[in-house]
Specification:
2 copies of one chain form a homodimer. With 156 residues, chain A is of the alpha+beta class. Helix content of chain A is 28%, strand content 21%. In chain A, a hairpin with a 4-residue loop joins strand 4 and strand 5.
DNA sequence: TTACGTGCAAATAATTTGCAGTCCC
DNA sequence: GGGACTGCAAATTATTTGCACGTAA
């Protein structure tokens, strides 16, 4: 939001600039018909650097650019994009689900006052060794969220 | 649940055995009147090793031991206990909130198939250095959840 | 043409709230 | 006795579903 901490990383998925035709192709590859709604949402999601969005944020954004889409379609699309590997769903607190346009494994700061998410730059987080999974289980993914709050009196 | 991975750690909060009078005292210290409902829920929560419960689990348990408590009271009590430092709320996926009777910082395995939480034994997780918080912010807490799933064909 | 998509409205799920009545100090 | 607490039911919030209609291939 206000913090310069996360200069949008260059996209690792070959969708830079994301001209509409590339997006349509990408949708087709995922066996998703490039409908007006999906293209509009894809454009909003992937058109400008990585983002963390909620269904509601995307709904409002679509409306504000005159491509209104129903909530049902927002949810359908977010889940289809997630299944296709374009997005990653992030479980934070509360009922609200976040979707991250960077599907690669990485960690987040959660600003407690606003509920905003911030990528933690890979170089800011020393690698750590995940523990062995319990007997009979295997690790699917590691979710690290560091909850931060405004420091009192500007220190820290 | 079935896994021997987490032998309930000895309680660090002086509530071993948790005789009712100690619980009542503890509630009073937190400026919570030791009502029938709060004592019953405290007994269920703290009476036997550490646990990860949802509001619904606690509701059902209270009913099953013939101390039925309304959902509103379950939620009130869980939040009051959390504010008092007896519990820690854990944000996992989905709308459902978990409350951990171990309020000290520690991490969890999430069994994806069942949604069950498992403490990660401190010695199984090498310490790692948290990154510096963004400018103007300070770290409140670190939440690490390692999502695991059944390994295919018994291997790991 | 026709299977896939979309939008609406109603349904769910988890949680919160308002308030009349109850109980602890 | 009086304020803190509880229970009920209705309200909220986030999300899902069912189904008639629309639209891309």
């Amino acid at each position: 939001m206000l913090l310069p901490l996360t200069k949008p990383a260059p996209r690792a998925d070959g969708m830079e600039g994301c001209p509409v035709h590339a997006l349509r192709k990408r949708l087709r590859t995922a066996r998703l018909r490039p409908t007006r709604q999906r293209v509009a949402l894809g454009w909003l999601l992937f058109g400008k650097g990585h983002r963390h969005v909620t269904a509601e944020m995307l709904f409002d954004e679509a409306k504000s650019v005159r491509s209104p889409v129903s909530m049902a379609t927002i949810y359908n699309t977010l889940h289809q994009f997630t299944r296709a590997g374009f997005l990653r769903e992030i479980a934070v607190e509360g009922a609200k689900a976040y979707f991250d346009t960077n599907p690669l494994p990485h960690s987040h700061f959660l600003i407690e006052e606003t509920g905003a998410l911030l990528d933690i730059p890979a170089n800011a987080l020393p690698a750590f060794h995940a523990p062995k999974a319990p007997e009979g289980y295997e690790i699917d993914r590691v979710e690290l969220v560091i909850r931060v709050r405004r420091a009192r009196r500007g220190r820290q």
